[in-house]
Amino acid sequence: MPIDHQHPSSERAQDAGQPTAERAHAEGNGRGGEPVGSLHRAVQLIRAVARGRAAGASLKDLVGSTGLPRPTIHRVAQMLMDVGWLERDRESRRFYLGTEIHGFGLVAALRHPIERLAASELARLAHEMGQTIYMVVRAGDDTVCVARHESAAPIQALVLQVGTREPLGIGAGSMALLAALPVPEAEQAIARNLERYRRRERFAEPSFRGALSEARRRGFASHDGLFTRGVSGIGVAVRDDSGYPLAALSTAFVTEWVDGERREVLARRMAASAAGIAAGLLGAGDGASARPR
Description:
Elements: E1 3-4, H1 9-16, H2 20-27, H3 38-51, H4 59-66, H5 70-82, E2 86-89, E3 95-97, H6 99-111, H7 114-129, E4 133-139, E5 142-149, E6 165-167, H8 172-180, H9 183-198, H10 205-218, E7 221-228, E8 231-239, E9 245-254, H11 260-284
Antiparallel strand pairs: 1-2, 2-3, 4-5, 4-9, 5-6, 7-8, 8-9
């Protein structure tokens, strides 16, 4: 894939032609001439590109997901490309996470090795349940899939890939993680994500709220086609010794294939695995470090 680290002249000209008032609004000036919010805009772009996973993100994608003006995106993206945090394909013009970000991720994994410590338990769980098992962790107002273990079943509902990033609460595991948070913290995350939720075709706030309340009451998330038509899921939080969620396990299946009684059985088995993973993290001394700061 040919990578372009240079700012195209046409884009530079477009940026330079931005009206003064718009540029002032986009940049803002703080003390010492430092741009106000530049770091925030850079984080927005990196997260938006990360959501595209291996497909990356187009300029149109970035405008739609961040709400930033195109000239601002060009300017911030160029700074990120200069330091190796973003790359841009010369032919498709799509943005991708850069090699520097990959290096940071490898270093971070040394301190947050939850998916490696959980690997044997997740593989065993997938085998015993005959279901694909996913693990997600929180990343700010999102969750990221860090592990996927498939069973030997000939037909499986594969709804996530490793690296899939979704707003916190979208998906059974993500919903379980959200439900396990202290209510004020969860409500703040919902308020920040609400506009993103509403951009999803199937999102209905009453149904979402109902599923969240039910997950809090039952101790695990279970839904019927809430996020994908015809696909249901179960999610269970992995908690530290104080009850705070570190991650979540989930599985998905065709709705009509698993009845209510079977779901209860699956949820109990997943809860046992979640407890075992939590105990392993505590024994390894990583339980506290996995908690978001």
